[in-house]
């Protein structure tokens, strides 16, 4: 079984990693509609003393909403609102860690991320950097983290990325976009309350939800597939089909998509993603296109690789009246195409999973450029 190297553009660990890994899972989960009210009780045993706060990193979309009043603040706990407009950056993590160290004499009892993949990744990274010296950029890579992170909790408010179960936090650094992949990255506790996803716009619901659907397609059609990944991938795929093509009530759809995200994340943990993610990475690197919509922009053109998945995707788009932007790559220079192609082709495990060991003969730079030109 191979580790998930999603977002790997350096791919340095792929050759040295052992074939079988002792993969950590989230040890504790609270699930259920309304379960956000359990948060105070969940945190209580982890509070070290009244000077060691719980720090809540919260998507600023919730500023001024009733959710904020439900955050169980006591002692000197702090809420920090953060925008999810841009994907997380290493210097943003460093600034947050400096602020927390400056504001409090004691190391926090807990870091709690409340939001989508952006806030979940920030919470993971801040928790790591509070107990490991240096800058976030020093830890981008595989298993570079030496000390356990501060106890950290993930509370997703939008479903699809699987960031709530993954052992990575994807950060844009000064030189590279790469995850901090480590056993210490994984959340100590996740709280899954489907009601928290209620306010998501239809477009964003679709883009982030399709991240999960595409995880399933790429995992289930990959050469790395194994029974572990397949069992989670098939369940997630069934749930996605129900959510995006069925006739569920809104609250059932929220519950099922939250579980699809979880299972999709578990599926790629022990297999790998594929062509859409490899290409989406190039788009994101060059144009700053966000993960969910980037995957959709690419996936619609991958009929040659995932015919059944693309057919389903198009049905889902039609059912929900989703119109993707067009001409995203129109007018790009040769140099820009070369950059995207180079970044994408560095994602070797993704290509190998998608196309097999001889993937280089199947996906040439020219062929890849032609695909980008369609976007
Ligand atoms: P996001 O966190 O970027 O948020 C997308 C938008 O939805 C934002 O505008 C946000 O404010 C809004 N939003 C979130 N919850 C809402 C709610 N309940 N109501 C209204 N609006 C809400 O979305 P995402 O797609 O979950 O995350 C993308 C990020 O996740 C990227 O940075 C990507 O790199 C990362 N990612 C990480 C992993 C991992 O394993 N760590 C996997 C995939 C993606
Ligand atoms: Zn993804």
Question: What is the fold's blueprint, element by element?
Answer:
Blueprint: E1 29-31, H1 39-43, E2 54-59, H2 66-69, E3 78-82, H3 90-103, E4 110-115, H4 117-131, E5 141-142, E6 152-156, E7 170-172, E8 177-181, E9 189-192, H5 202-220, H6 227-245, H7 250-269, H8 275-287, H9 291-299, H10 307-319, H11 334-345, H12 348-355, H13 359-362, H14 365-373
Helix pairs in contact: 3-4, 5-6, 5-7, 5-9, 6-7, 8-9, 8-11, 11-14
Give a written overview of the molecule.
The protein has 375 residues and is an alpha/beta fold. It has 14 helices and 9 strands. It starts with 28 loop residues before the first strand and ends with a helix. The relative contact order is 0.13. The site of nicotinamide-adenine-dinucleotide has 28 residues, from helix 4, helix 5 and helix 9. Nicotinamide-adenine-dinucleotide (NAD) is lined by residues 59, 61, 84, 87-88, 115-119, 121, 157-158, 161-163, 166, 168-170, 196-197, 199-200, 204, 208, 291-292.
